Amino acid sequence: MSGAPLNFVSPADFRARVDQALQDGKLRSSMRGAMDFLQTKRKSQFPDEDELELLRDLGEAVRRHALANLPQLLQQLEANLQANGVQVHWAETAEEANAIIHGIAERRSARRIIKGKSMASEEVELNHYMAERGIECVESDMGEYIVQLAEEKPSHIVMPAVHKTKSDIGALFEQHIPGMSYTEDVDTLIQAGRRALRQAFVDADIGLSGVNFAAADTGTIWLVENEGNGRLSTTVPDVHIALMGLEKVVASLEHIVPLSSLLTRSATGQSITTYFNLITGPRRAGELDGPREMHLVLLDNGRTQAYADEQLRQTLQCIRCGACMNHCPVYARVGGHAYGTTYPGPIGKIISPHLLGLDATADLATASSLCGACGEVCPVRIPIPQLLVRLRTEANRDPEQSVAHPLRGQGANYSRSEQLVWRFWSGAFARPSVYRWFRWAATRLRAFAPSSQLGWTQHRTPLKPAPRSLAELLRERGQAE
């Protein structure tokens, strides 16, 4: 499997890729079907609206409490992990995280890393960093394995290959798995992938995983998964490395329980996931399995920029369920790859500016109708629409203006001419005489207005027509009376 990012793109090309995605009928059909299915599954898991709202209140409270005490909780987590025999490393940037992991691999003379699902490793592009240094990373999550074979990035944070059809996967496996014949039978494809990966767990020198949550009071890492690959990746190789964003820590183990309930039900519509892995350290004396050496890499990579601002800090409440993506009308039409970022969809629009800078991601915040669906379904009540408006403001702010917590790339979309237009607009609406003149002029210049609203009118899903008009219903009612 190649380590070169052949199909990797930049968020700066977002507009061009959106045009391509909207013309791809196969992609739009696949995404629409998948998102409708996931919305229905989620809804079935929350039949009691009162219970859902209480659980969301609890989830939000847990995440806000953790963020309010983040520095102390991280120190407590580090101390308890070290007491459990785990080596803890701090990485301020993606480059530092990759260098730390490469250093561990180099000391062990490792040539292969088997990976459980880790969006943080996608964020720092670990696979390609290691490939350039002669170390192979093999994805063991089935969705991640599929996109790795296709040399693509994940298009969804929970279901990386949601954009692929079974015919796509059949052709991919036929090409890359020795002795595999083309088939569209899903069970056959899954079994073929599992057989191809089984030996990789044994051959790997290092197992790498992400972290869903970490409990500071016990020094416990909590992994949520469905396939068992996470458990194999963290127990079979002699070395286990966990890569975790700073924000994933919570105060206590009991705080993780409601978050896990929200996560699985919001993400895939499951009442409970197949595997909960609670890891407290390497193999102890007398134990027959587990890694002999364990490391945790705590990753910043722009998170402290979001943390410094009280409003933007809410971004870090995210538990990576993907519900906002599943309900987003924009994401459902263009798919994840159009964004050019590790985290696409609504959550990607508000977190990517901190990871990559507003200068690289300024267009993402505008890719929203602000319909509010993402905020309504967020299990921990992140006010995504308000944060999108805030990021739009920061992208258009005068870069020379002094602010308390400047964002990297602030003012990326700033335009003096646009500011003058808005100043005129606000002045016109503030003065009745000027407004009347403007209205008079606008009605006589309407011929210059565009005949359509471009993307919205061309690509939206039209509303189903009512079976009868309102006038007909009123006439029927009058006749009946």
From TrEMBL:
InterPro entries: 4Fe4S_Fe-S-bd (IPR017896), 4Fe4S_Fe_S_CS (IPR017900), FTHF_cligase-like_sf (IPR024185), Helical_ferredxn (IPR009051), LUD_dom (IPR003741), LutB/LldF (IPR004452), LutB_C (IPR024569), NagB/RpiA_transferase-like (IPR037171)
PROSITE patterns named among the record's database cross-references: 4FE4S_FER_1, 4FE4S_FER_2
Keywords tagged on the record: 4Fe-4S, Electron transport, Iron, Iron-sulfur, Metal-binding, Repeat, Transport
Keyword ATP-binding: no
Coiled coil: none
Keyword flag Electron transport: yes
UniProt domain 4Fe-4S ferredoxin-type: residue ranges: 308-338
NCBIfam families linked: LutB/LldF family L-lactate oxidation iron-sulfur protein (TIGR00273)
Protein name as catalogued: Iron-sulfur cluster-binding protein
